[in-house]
Amino acid sequence: METHTVETFSSAAAEVAPRSAIFRPWFTALMVTGLLMSAAGVPGNLLTIVAYLKHAQLRNPTNLLICSQTIGDLLTCLTGPIFFVLNYSEAGLVLASSYKYLCLIGLGTLMLSLQSSILNILALSTERFIAVFFPYDYYSWITETKVKIVVAVIWSSVLVINFLPFFGWDTWSPDGYCMATRVYSPIFSQFIYLLPCAICLLISAVQNILIGGMAAKKQRSVVPVAAQGNQESADDGAARKSQFKVTKMLLQVVGVFYISWMPQIITNVLLINPPISWRQNGIPEWYYVMNEWAKPAMMINAIANPFIYAFKNVHYRTAYFKILGIKTNEVEP
To answer: Which single residue of 4, 14, 18, 158 has CA 20 to 30 Å from 246?
Structure first.
């Protein structure tokens, strides 16, 4: 592929749109993919939020964190279409290049939702880390009141951070795409947004590696303990078995999160710190295409999570069935 920019604006859009905001032939397919994946994530996440609000058996600290993460996923699915239309359609490029605050609102709400997902994943990972490594302190450390405070801090933080560009911390100009690297100042992008997100992702990754190792080790001790004769040991074994099921479910949630986000994270590394040859000759077109197609892939996480909850947690599955009017006699094993 050619390494220079592919300039294929239609004549009508080219008269209004800036030269550097260039419409590429594959943008339409990318936009349609992004719109379809965004739409696919809405029903499941909305169902999960309604299930938490309507069914008392789901009201516990872990599920409060799951609900907070689900709100972030739903917000991503709702704001994603704005981003895809503004950046991958000819009309959207014209609008984003002409109206600063339309661009800031469209980009800011998406960035807010993505950052909330990262912080909620960290909160879920920390909650499971405590459950696995400090089981006897779990119920005193993880209370509903404390989790509500954590959730409030998460959403307050992302709101404050992502509203900063609206107060002049932006580099928007009518000559580029409505993307963070073009609209946000380098200091904001790298040190206020990206660096904290990278640290959260790193901490979460380390926690889940440790959780996975410890959970696998503890799995062998769940059945023998539960099988002992006295009732206290049986109850303790049942509680540990229940926690282990939740841990496995959330490990899958976090695993899907990293699988869907890693292509974008990895390709962005070279975009932020490109090789010298790329700085001199421009980013290769093939790499640019790969980076752009990694964006709709991030929606896989939001689409998959409700299915994981349904298959791995009988309480969520029962709540889903009741909301959808599906009769089931399933009970917790």
So the answer is: 158
19-324 falls under which CATH superfamily? Rhodopsin 7-helix transmembrane proteins (1.20.1070.10)
pLDDT digits (tens, 9 = 90+) for 87-120: 999 999 999 989 999 999 999 999 999 999 999 9
6: confidence class by pLDDT, cuts 50, 70, 90: very low
Measured between alpha carbons, how far is 185 from 166 in angstroms, rounded to an integer?
12
Please give the Cα distance from 87 to 180 (Å, whole number). 12
pTM score, whole prediction: 0.86
pLDDT at position 236 is: 60
Q: Cα dist. 146→38, 53, 57, 131, 140 in Å? A: 32, 19, 19, 15, 10
Nearest to 257, CA basis, from 118, 133, 149: 118
DSSP H helical segments within 89-137, as ranges? 90-98, 100-133
Q: How is the chain split into domains, by residue range?
A: 19-324
